[in-house]
């Protein structure tokens, strides 16, 4: 089976390429490298000892994307390509809507024209807005608070409408919780451009001495210690969920939606402590005001993925911190080293 991985040079995409290749799948990667480095794919080849084609193509370029499908015959697409920074999406909504929505519309039209009907899409727990209760199940009400989240919700709607109109499609929507960690080899990991927005890359850069201190956004939330609670998931576990989705759902027309999380919620301060333990480094922090738009707590009920995809997270917090630290310490400047 041959899979096209859009956004395959990115954080989650590169880890998924490793799991696909190790699982015996053939792959090709399409990425315009707007938020990634070609070196991630060289490392994927090193880790797996396998090779594949890379297309430096923007999904907004319809002709170039179509050519990729004319060049190789794919059985399925895993669609990671998109912009993902919440704050930037508020400042540049048109960029986000254009890149994420138009890019996906092009991809879906080209898939249909070329007879490729299996797709796995990267959605996000952000589509649950501020959940009324926890843990979150897939049938909870959906809403968003920023343009990035709206692109995810709109694309979910587009995929549902597409299946209604053409029931040859098999659509699997994976709603990720908070992916962290890195491949155990320490060769691939998250390489954010500039100052990280997300908690774990920020903690990692404080631990390595690139950033002086972590700002903890709020300590008066109604949570165990007042700081925000999230469902952190090892990026390798998340990647395996994509392999399972391709394996179980390709050729099974329908729309399938799954939470991909561990079901455990950890607070910001628990993450700081766990990372200090794994790295042996101090992570200095100060308490700051809440970050606008943040919710108090978010964690998954992931039982549907267990029942239907035969998938559960295998790694715990210790492994997530260990592997994140291993990547950071071997690559203090990411792929630029
Ligand atoms: P990433 O930025 O590392 O990877 C996305 C990749 O898509 C990058 O390599 C980028 O260059 C590429 N890309 C963007 N626009 C493109 C376009 N128009 N044409 C071709 N390539 C394009 O991000 P990631 O963390 O690996 O996330 C992958 C997907 O998962 C994204 O869709 C993201 O929104 C979603 N997601 C991520 C998280 C998270 O916390 N990391 C959580 C939920 C959902
Ligand atoms: N936090 C800090 N300091 C920081 C960064 C984060 O205290 O410097 C806190 C946040 O307030 C929150 C927690 O750490 O309580 C996690 O924040 P992240 O930014 O790492 O993650 P979010 O849950 O806010 O959002 C992430 C992705 C979204 C995605 C969502 C759900 O950024 O794109 O997970 O998947 F939608």
Task: Give the class from helix and strand content and strand pairing.
Answer: alpha/beta
Given as residue ranges, the uncertain stretches (5+ residues, pLDDT < 50) are none
What's the total helix number? 11
The profile of the biggest β sheet is: 7 strands, parallel
Helix content: 40-55%
Strand content: 15-25%
How far the N terminus sits from the C terminus, by CA atoms, comes to 35 Å
Order of helices and strands: EHEHEHEHHEHEEHEEEHEEHEEHH
Shape: globular
Reading side by side through the largest sheet, how are the strands ordered?
3-2-1-4-5-6-11
Q: How many DSSP E strands?
A: 14
Assembly form of the protein: single chain
Short account of what is shown:
The protein contains 11 helices and 14 strands.
Q: How are the secondary structure elements laid out?
A:
Blueprint: E1 2-6, H1 11-22, E2 26-31, H2 39-48, E3 53-56, H3 62-71, E4 76-79, H4 86-91, H5 93-113, E5 118-124, H6 147-165, E6 170-176, E7 178-180, H7 199-207, E8 214-217, E9 229-230, E10 232-234, H8 235-249, E11 254-260, E12 266-267, H9 268-279, E13 285-288, E14 297-298, H10 303-309, H11 317-330
Parallel strand pairs: 1-2, 1-4, 2-3, 4-5, 5-6, 6-11, 7-10, 8-13, 9-14
Antiparallel strand pairs: 9-12
Report on the architecture of this protein.
- The chain is an alpha/beta fold.
- It contains eleven helices and 14 strands.
- Helix 1 (11-22) packs parallel to helix 2 and helix 9 (268-279) packs across helix 11.
- The radius of gyration is 19 Å and the shape is globular.
- The chain binds nicotinamide-adenine-dinucleotide and uridine-5'-diphosphate-4-deoxy-4-fluoro-alpha-D-galactose (UFG).
- Uridine-5'-diphosphate-4-deoxy-4-fluoro-alpha-D-galactose (UFG) is lined by residues 84, 86, 124-126, 176-178, 197-199, 202, 214-217, 228, 230, 268, 291, 294.
């Amino acid at each position: 089976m041959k899979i096209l991985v859009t956004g395959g040079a990115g954080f989650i995409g590169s880890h998924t390429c490793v799991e696909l290749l190790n699982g015996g799948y053939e792959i090709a990667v399409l990425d315009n490298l707007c938020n990634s480095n070609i070196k991630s794919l060289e490392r994927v080849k090193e880790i797996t000892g396998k090779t594949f084609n890379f297309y430096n193509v923007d999904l907004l370029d319809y002709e170039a994307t179509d050519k990729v499908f004319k060049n190789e015959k794919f059985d399925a697409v895993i669609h990671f390509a998109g912009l993902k920074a919440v704050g930037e999406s508020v400042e540049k909504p048109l960029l986000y809507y254009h890149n994420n929505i138009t890019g996906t519309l092009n991809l879906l039209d080209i898939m249909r024209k070329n007879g490729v009907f299996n797709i796995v899409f990267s959605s996000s727990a952000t589509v649950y807005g501020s959940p009324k209760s926890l843990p979150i199940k897939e049938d909870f009400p959906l809403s968003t608070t920023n343009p990035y989240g709206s692109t995810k919700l709109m694309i979910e709607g587009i995929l549902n409408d597409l299946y209604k109109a053409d029931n040859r499609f098999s659509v699997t929507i994976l709603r990720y919780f908070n992916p962290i960690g890195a491949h155990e080899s320490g060769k691939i990991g998250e390489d954010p451009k500039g100052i990280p927005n997300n908690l774990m890359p920020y903690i990692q850069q404080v631990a390595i001495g690139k950033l002086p201190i972590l700002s903890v956004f709020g300590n008066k939330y109604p949570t165990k210690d007042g700081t925000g609670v999230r469902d952190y998931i090892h990026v390798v576990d998340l990647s395996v969920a994509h392999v399972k989705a391709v394996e179980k759902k390709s050729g099974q027309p329908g729309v399938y939606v799954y939470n991909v999380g561990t079901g455990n919620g950890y607070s910001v301060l628990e993450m700081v402590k766990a990372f200090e333990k794994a790295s042996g480094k101090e992570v200095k922090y100060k308490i700051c005001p809440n970050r606008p738009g943040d919710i108090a707590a978010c964690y998954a009920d992931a039982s549907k993925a267990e029942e239907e995809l035969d998938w559960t997270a295998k790694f715990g917090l210790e492994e997530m911190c260990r592997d994140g630290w291993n990547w950071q310490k071997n690559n203090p400047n990411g792929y630029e080293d």
